[in-house]
Amino acid sequence: MFKRVIHAEDAEGFSSVEAVREYAAHAEKSMLKYEAFFSELEKLGIGQGRLLDVGAGPGVLAAAVAARYPAAHITALELSDNMIAAGREYIAGKGMADRVMYVAGNAADVAALADLGPFDVVYSTFTLHHFADPQAVIRNLLPVVDAGGALFLYDLRRAWWLYWVPSRSGFCRSVRGAYTRRDVLALLDEMGLSGYSVRNVVPFLLSAVIKKP
Description:
By secondary structure, the protein is α/β, with parallel strands linked by helices. It has eight helices and seven strands, in the order H-H-E-H-E-H-E-E-H-E-H-H-H-E-E.
């Protein structure tokens, strides 16, 4: 079995608010990768609910979610000061500052979540493979999910045909550091959780939904 290869996060590209603005402009043009994310979100039936976007970045996805669900309110949790500054600017520019609120914090720090929630849906996209201790983050997030709600993790998936591509791009490094469906099932099973589903999303994505009774 091809092994997971972890690379240190390269934050140099986001060392300024301007760099984040450029990243946001690029992200707006590549929303196709969220097609399965929105399909799953629709199944969760959030309607007029409260959502927590973990690792919200520059707010491109939060704004897209808010646009699809006009009655939803989103808390955007982000640890980078530059991301928060650019994100607030981006959200304000979309006219959604009343429904998308940025909060500085790290999901790996349970204290950062103490005054948040409850939420109907807590979601995090393309971040699972970056967590040093994913089980600790999941344990931190589950308590802020309201009864009947869900924790939704959407990430890259380690696919063999991309793993062997001879490239040093950030994308390929991320794929090599991502989890397989089997990895995530084992991780959740080890935590003693139930009521979850994990599925592969074509071509190299993964969706994990943990329902809260």
